[in-house]
Amino acid sequence: MSRKCVVIVGGGPAGLYVAWRLAESGHKVELVERREFLGGLCASPERGGNAYGYGFHGLHAADPAFVAQFHELMGKRWRESEPRARVRIRTRFHDCPVGGWEFMCSMNPLVAAVCGAGLAGARFARPFRRGAPANAEQALIRRYGRPLYRAVFRDDTSRFWGVHPSRLSATLVQGCMPPLEAAGCCEKATGRPGRRARPVKGRLPATGLAKLYCAPGGMGEICEAMARRVREAGGRIHTGTRVTRVRLEFGSVRAVVVQPAAGGVEVPCDLLVWTGPLGELAEGMHPGAPPQVVGAARALKFRALISVALLVRKEQVFDSVLTYCHGRSFYRVAEPKHCGVDVTPPGCTALLADVSCAPDETSWEKPWSIARRVAADLEADGSIRADEIREIYTFRARHAYPVYTLGFEQRCETVQAYLDPIPNLLRVGRQATFSFMSASAAMQSAWAAVSTWLQGRCQAGKVSGVGW
Ligand SMILES: Cc1cc2nc3c(=O)[nH]c(=O)nc-3n(C[C@H](O)[C@H](O)[C@H](O)COP(=O)(O)OP(=O)(O)OC[C@H]3O[C@@H](n4cnc5c(N)ncnc54)[C@H](O)[C@@H]3O)c2cc1C
Asked: What pLDDT shows up at residue 144?
């Protein structure tokens, strides 16, 4: 196989993994990351000697050969743990997914009876329904009945996505969105009261996967280790730079323009691997993409994430790595110590509470107001006391969750129809496929696309693969 010159846009797990594999196979690799640090959403920014992050991240994969690569990469810094998750309903904690009896007991008996009847009705009506649900609201009602929708899903979904479920696509419900994970629990719970629900295979909270992997410095340490291997193999990594233009010639990518540099530096490439947002890619094409493509790509919006990190003077706050919460300022809180992430000084633990928001909301500009609310909620729940909080930080990620608004499928198709015929452009990873894939899925699917391309079987990146 001849040596190819590959430009990779984005230093998240997908970009780094592809860069690592390519560099070790002898290809010329130029990785461009816009931020000053690597890891993308899986980065572990350090504050006061501790590794925090954009929500908690651990590696989980079913493929033993894939996991073994990382074990070899990390050596003694490799940590394995049980991926335990809990749901807090009112004042009680339940293993995830929640068992039927526990769930029913946690509800007001009258509400539980009405929700149970609604769910039974929805199930009964299912075979008689015609046509697909028009939006997420209809899909939720069809699946769980109106009372349960009103009691649980309407407000939680609206709060998480910032729009009413009637303005979201039904694909969101059919896929496996993390905030709707509780839906599976409720269905099992209300459907089989008195019995313990079986784990939902392949999903982190309910995991079904045997292990969660991490490093003492968080998932960011694993990303840094990949970057080290890229450099050792001769690949080049540029941080604090970004690709602003993709120059096409005869329908193929000829070069990319990388900034900052006066006017940008043009880097020729045989293959461009794009892991950034689709909107930026469509806008950066030269000659320009048709206006309807740019418009469709721009309309594919992401929900942002504010992660509030607290260093708490306490050995341990929760007994699981993830705790999902209902009706709080945050939708889940993680305690990374349970996955082998180091915390200093001794006797302290770190918490990471995740809050979704829009980049145009005041909370995005003033994350401290969110931090105060998170701390107040944790105190009100009795999880921590104010005098136990030693340090508090906030971390923001603009492209955390693709928002499946009504009509996003057609917009994806419009963008796909324009980009896919470009033979040496691969869109991989979470942002460029507008999907909810995990880090391991992002890495594995990215490498599968690149290796297929190298073998001469060109395969354009697929837009919109739903699923965790
Ligand atoms: C709260 C939360 C928790 C999660 N927890 C887990 C978990 O525990 N386990 C798991 O496996 N997955 C988890 N995920 C999913 C995981 O974060 C993603 O699957 C993974 O980060 C995807 O990697 P990526 O490389 O595709 O994208 P990203 O991590 O988003 O990286 C993309 C990179 O591209 C850069 N970039 C974008 N545009 C440009 C440009 N024009 N020029 C240069 N650089 C650019 C960005 O700065 C970024 O660094 C979680 C996600 C969230 C939101």
From this structure: 83
Q: Whose CA is nearest to atom 26 of ligand 1?
A: 429
Same domain, 269 and 313: no
Ligand 1 atom nearest the C-alpha of 58 is 8
Residue 441: per-residue pLDDT? 95
- Here the CATH number for the domain that contains residue 283 is 3.50.50.60
| Full residue range of the structural domain in which residue 14 is found | 5-44+218-300+405-454
Q: How many CB atoms are closer than 10 A to CB 300?
A: 23
CB contact at 8 A, 9 and 238: no
Identify whether residues 366 and 289 lie together within a single domain. no
Mean pLDDT in consecutive groups of 10 residues from the start of the chain, 468 residues: 91 98 97 96 97 95 93 97 81 69 73 84 86 92 89 88 94 62 47 39 46 96 98 96 94 93 82 94 95 95 96 95 88 95 97 93 89 96 95 96 94 94 96 93 96 76 40
Closest CA to 279 of 406, 395, 419: 419
CA of 246 to the centre of ligand 1 (A): 21
Same domain flag for 234 and 307: no
pLDDT of residue 194: 36
Structural domain total, the chain: 3
Whether 90 maps to a domain, the answer reads no
Same domain? 251 vs 276: yes
Predicted confidence at residue 379, as pLDDT, reads 96
Q: Is 56 in contact with 66 (CB distance < 8 Å)?
A: no
Ligand 1 atom closest to Cα of residue 15? 25
Residue whose Cα lies nearest atom 53 of ligand 1: it is: 400
As a whole number of angstroms, the distance between CA 84 and CA 82 comes to: 6
Tell which one of 36, 41, 66 to mutate to probe ligand 1, the residue whose CB is within 8 A of the most ligand atoms. 41
The set of protein residues with a Cβ atom below 6 angstroms from ligand 1 is: 9-15, 32-35, 40-42, 55-60, 204, 242-243, 275-276, 280, 305, 354, 399-401, 429-431, 437-440, 442
With contact defined as beta carbons under 8 Å apart, do 61 and 68 qualify? no
- CA 85 to ligand 1 center in whole angstroms: 22
pLDDT at 359: 86
Distance CA 107, CA 168 (A): 27
- Best mutation site among 21, 81, 82, 275 for ligand 1, i.e. most ligand atoms within 8 A of its Cβ? 275
- For residue 407, what pLDDT is reported? 94
Cβ neighbours of residue 416 closer than 8 Å, sequence gap 6 or more: 460, 462, 463
Could you tell me if 293 and 410 lie in one domain? yes
Residue 103: its pLDDT value, please? 66
Query: How far, in Å, from the CA of 13 to the mean position of ligand 1?
Result: 7
